[in-house]
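Quick one, T. Sequence first:
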Amino acid sequence: KLWLSYQNYLENYYRLLKSKNEIEQKELQIATINIINQIKQGSYITINQNEELKNLLEKIYETNRRLIKHADTKTQIILEKELNDLQKSIHDINFNLKQKRETLATNKNRELTQHRTELQRIRQAITEISSELHPDDTRQLIQKLNLLGIQWTDAERSLTVLIDSLTKRRSEYQDFENKFLRFIQWFENFLNNEINQRLNGLTIQTSLEILKNDIRNIITDKRKYANELLIQARLLQSQLTDQIQIEIIKQKIEQLEHIMDTIEQHVEKRIKKTEITCKMFNEFEQGCENIRLWMDTIETNLQRTLPTQNTNEFHIHQQSIAAIEMDIEKHSTVMSSLLALGHNLLNDTDISSRTIDSLSRRIQTLEQRWLSLNELIKKNENS
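Structure tokens:
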């Protein structure tokens, strides 16, 4: 039942669309100054503004969605193709009529300009036959001619205003389109290249400062620019009558808002991640310094000359070695955590290669000193 209703909606829509298209085509072919004024004032009813067509289209979209939701794959493909074909037909007809409406004023204005000389010929003809006419007849002819001249000038003025309006609107739309495309290009380059280029080779702390200051300032400026574009887009949207163009502008407004949300979220996440990395790096640096000082002390104690004066001194020395062994055992957990932290930092893709090299050397030095320390304690045990 739903499928039959859907097919019936489609059939009625295509029939009505064809009929309304033919009517508008004829109106534009024999367009009067009244129709031109309606187009200029925005009161001319186009196919897109026809309530019957709009209601039918809403029913088609809604029924199509309901059918797709419960259809198998093959039927879904058919439904999607039918909807795409319908949208293409609507777009083609709208585009054709829009072009005709836009060229109508230019063509009519050209016709008026080309035929203005006829007014002068009529005036000349009246002058030539005025001697054979009653003065009242001559006066009446001149008055009608003057009235026609005024109407002619008004028509030319209306057409000029309409042409200027269409040209201005087209120029404004093109200006928005160019700005929009440049903004998209900036967004893609900024997200994929520029941020990394600005941070390339910098220390973690400097990268964090650049992100918090320079990058945030760029985003703030771009947010202002995007807001200006949004205002321009909404103004254009309010001036349009073509439903297809209105929908296109709506999509671009949503895209602009999504882009700014995306870039702001990306930068804030990058800042948060860099803050965590910076904290880890500082902890690693401080840990390295603490463990270095501790190992210096342990190595100094282990390398002292073994006392041989008496048994008591030897016993004290052995107790000292045992205490050092216990201290080393306690610090093994600290060393493991410190090395794990260092290796985690090595795997951070946002850290510069120069910092990675420095980290790698620090880790190797720690590992070597730890091994040396353990060898030294074994040597003391065996001595």
